[in-house]
Amino acid sequence: MKTLFFAWRYLWSRPLGAALNVLLLSLGLASITFLLLVGHQLNKAFERDLAGIDVVVGAKGSPMQLILSGVLHVDVPPGNVPLKAVRELEKHPLVDSVIPISLGDNLRGFRIVGTSHAYIRHYQATLAQGSLWDAPMQVVVGATAARQLGLVVGHTFVGAHGLGAGGHVHGDSRFTVTGILAPSGSVLDRLVLTDTASVWKVHEDFTAVDADDRKVMEEEREITLALIHYKTPMAAMSFPRYINTSTEMQAAAPALEISRLLHMLGLGTDVLRAFAGVLLLTAGLSVFIALWSAVRERSGDLALLRMLGAPPAKVAALLLCEALWLGLLASLVGLLLGQAFAAALAWLLQLDNSLLIGGMVWPPELLIVPCLALGVSVGAALLPAWGAFRVSVLSLLQTR
Amino acid sequence: MIRSRQLRYAYPGGPTLDFPDVDVAQGTVLLLSGPSGCGKSTWLALAAALVAPTAGELVVADQALGALKNIAADAWRARAIGFLPQKLHLSAALTVQQNLALGFWASGQPEDAARIADALQALGVQELAQRTPAQLSGGQAQRVALARAVLLQPRVILADEPTASLDDEAAADAVGLLLDTAHTHGATLVIATHDARVAALIPATFDGQIGFQPLRLVRKQL
User: Fold this and answer.
1) What is the least distance, in Å, from the CA of B42 to any CA of chain A?
2) Considering only CB atoms, which chain A residues are within 8 Å of B69?
3) What pTM was computed for the model?
4) A169 and A298 together in one domain
5) A67 inside domain
6) A183, A325, B149, B214: least surrounded by Cβ within 10 Å?
7) pLDDT tens, position by position, A215-241
8) Looking at CA atoms only, how far is residue A21 from chain B in angstroms?
9) What interface predicted TM-score (ipTM) does this complex get?
């Protein structure tokens, strides 16, 4: 313990140098923390929100866009598909279940999603208040959305057109809140859920010019996409091909698209990782220079420790403990900075709202950060420690 | 007690130094003097078991140093030798009290705050315990360094050029302080110096100059 105490005092006898080294090391570690956090949270979000969804069927376009818009709710959908076509899919022998998703409106940025009760059951969400809808224009609000919008059971509101805040307000169509979901940690937390018929009603009320027009609309009803669960995993071999070649719709496999997305993100991640590596290397060199200079400047003090009876290993341990302190402090600062960077990214990109990134999480993979910090600092201290180990006590004897 | 017989040290690839035999009783003073390069530093290094003699016998504080190696030598040095270097090497990062505590840490002994306080008090610098070396005068710093040297009750005190760069008055104070401290602790005092004033500053209660070349030893009793 005393070794750590003296090392601490020696370290801070050069406060500016010590602070700069901690900062430099921290920046490299913060970059790595940031990458680990973003990677961890994205993986968790994908794992959580894509679970049990074998394929997503929607309008032709970008399959990744379909997944991002329909499952993760972070993008706009490529278009709509006819309701009749989706109804046909429900009868397909390879299909176990179909969850309809209709998008188009929002409440102050929170998406109003037309769907069925099966969507709530899929994510095993439970009600914190009230009940599920049993008629159009009734909504169940996700926990995050309810908290941020200040909604409780019995409140009414009107939605706005579009998926982002600021669209045209559907003033004549009021929704009533019948239930609030308990937090489930899934995408449902930030959605406003209603019956699919509500979405049709709002838009038909808004655009139909007369009864005939409304009748035509009813016959041509659409939904945005369908989340499909197969009866058997073997369906993955033929069902998407059937959809893509035999219908006007497209099928997108979430696992495949997310794998593509992660691969694309991986290229950027590699650049950031390389940058973090350069920062760590620079920090390691800086620590090395600082400790090497310390050994040179304090060679007399170190020699005196030998004269006072300290074995060479104890003198070297003092240097290593200084490096340990640097590593420890840098770990702490780096982890906190990394968390701050992730929070800033989430805030800038509004990803905290989408639950993709946000909140302070401490996944086990962050353990690598202190390990790296200690590895770099102790690695950089090895040569100076060897210098301290070999310090010549004879240099103290300056008799002339 | 210090005793040497046919002591020799050969620097690897360098000169070989032969030292005259000495017998220094416990509680007496050995004055090493001579010009630069005559072997004063080497003699101190041998007496502190920092280097092993190439040949001959050297006994310091009842310990034959020829066979003493590595950790055993470090442990013996911590117990038996107090060292006052020319440049005091009080760590600027530590307070006076912590500089003394460093002695306990270095020797692997548990820290004893009371002994630190006693050592500082004996040298009249107890009120400086929480100051840093930068806040001390030259004389105060030398007293603190001496307190550090005698903290572990050594049987031999090695002082290297204790009067270098000091005026006559300060030099007399420094030598007087060393003699008093050694006397208080019953330690044998070895002063290595090329300062001709030092010999005159040691009370001539015991005279018996032993001259040899290139290393001169002046032996006096307290």
Assistant:
1) 8
2) none
3) 0.74
4) no
5) yes
6) B214
7) 777 778 899 999 999 999 888 889 999
8) 18
9) 0.82
